[in-house]
Amino acid sequence: VSDWRNQQFEKQALGYTRAFFVYLHRAYGFIFSDADQQAIALNACRDTANHINKHRIFQRTLDGLKLTSFLAYHAACHVVKTSSHGGGHDPALEACRAGVERLSGLLKLETSNQIVLSSSDCGYLMSMLYAELTDNCEAGIGANGLSTVFTFLYRIRPVPTATVLAGI
Amino acid sequence: MPNQESERRFLRFSWARSNERFKIVIDYFAGLRAFCLRPGDPSPWVLPRSPAQMNQAAFSTIWNSTLGQTLEIQASESALTNGLSNETSQRYEDAAALSDDEIWDKLQAGLL
């Protein structure tokens, strides 16, 4: 991979990462310190790299859904570790929802609004991520699972029909 | 030896979001760890210490030790497949240089 393409990938990854943290901050009030952001980003990039290596996935553009899935997982993991949960108000649940919503936004963008998850769809995925992070592993879904769900939704998007195309 | 507990200093202030008022308690003793408490809710929500924006230099360090290395060892260009679309990839590539406010505007507009 050329230096030029590597720089492209790096900028894409930084864009996905910054958009993720801005969303969690502005939409949900989560403020991660510089050190925490870097730790979450490092874990997410490392896990994405491990996945790419293990499965030998060669891509021309960065898989933003996979990277964002790992960001969502590690950010929620951080909130679980640093907050109390299980009470009336659980920030870990909000962190899980925020991560899933960010993925949903990316899916919506990538499919040109053809696939828009409902609030209950996001809630279902949020509850599975939450279960994974709070040790109910039999019911849970981790970062790879989350990424697979969204990638599957992206790949099965409906192909525009001739009628639709004729109307453009 | 001084009693560490007695030396704790707290800064409390209120914070409103989504029609709910939160009380922020910053515990200097614990290294500026912040706790967010809802009225009547005894469980603390530990907030990070300060807002920050991921900068290019910090991210480069992360990149070069993880995905950058991985991509360096990938196969030839012809073996590559697409991740997300070129358009989405370009949007996020451009977003790397935007301010937080600009990124948020684009997120709200569905452009990221």
How does this structure look, described?
The complex is a heterodimer of chains A (168) and B (112). The longest helix of chain A has 26 residues, at 3-28. Helices cover 72% and strands 0% of the residues of chain A. Chain A has helices at 3-28, 34-55, 64-82, 91-110, 119-133, 143-155, 162-167. Chain A is globular and about 50 Å long. With 168 residues, chain A is mainly α. Chain B has 4 helices and 4 strands. Chain B has helices at 56-65, 67-72, 86-95, 100-108; strands spanning 10-17, 20-27, 33-37, 45-47. A 4-stranded antiparallel sheet of chain B has the order 1-2-3-4, with no helix packed on it. In chain B, strand 3 (33-37) and strand 4 (45-47) form a beta hairpin. The longest helix of chain B has 10 residues, at 56-65. The termini of chain B are far apart. Residues 1-39, 41-51 and 72-80 of chain B have low confidence and may be disordered.
